[in-house]
Here is the input.
Amino acid sequence: MQAKELRKGTAVIYQNEIHIVTDYRLGTPGNLRSFVQASLKNIKTGRVISNKFASDENFERAILEPRDCQFLYKDEQGYHFMDMESYHNFPLSPEILGEFKEYLKENMTLKIAFYDGNPVTVDFPKVVTLKVIESPPWVKGDSVSNNLKPVVCETGLKINVPIFIDEGTMIKINTETGEYTGRA
Here is the structure.
């Protein structure tokens, strides 16, 4: 594939290692040749490279195999998942999950992409539903403006929510922004 065909989330082999495109922009300065400004995240190291490429530069596409996997538990080896087809259990490192590990609940099913039999990326849903387990009381009179208060969810995630949210309430959270989006 050519650089102008790169899109966010595409897996490519760059410098003999798998990278995921995290950002992409096509530039055409005046009458000069067009270029692609892309950020590539190395799957193994997590390092992000930002580079300019000629729009006709060639890349080898990495073919990823998505599988449904269920989150089981977390221990010192990592976050353990089970492949729903083969029932094979495997741990994932916190580096692969990134900031999304705060949204993992037991028995949650996610799509995990594999390359040569090894898990490389996790596809998280845009919105997750979590239960509030700690919520400080609000004082009458606090509702003058759009006030927020910190709460703790069942996964340990701390988030700011409107003051009317109480313990036991199921809330929706945007996994891209980490913000409260509404009651479930």
User: Anything to note?
Assistant: The longest strand covers residues 17-27.
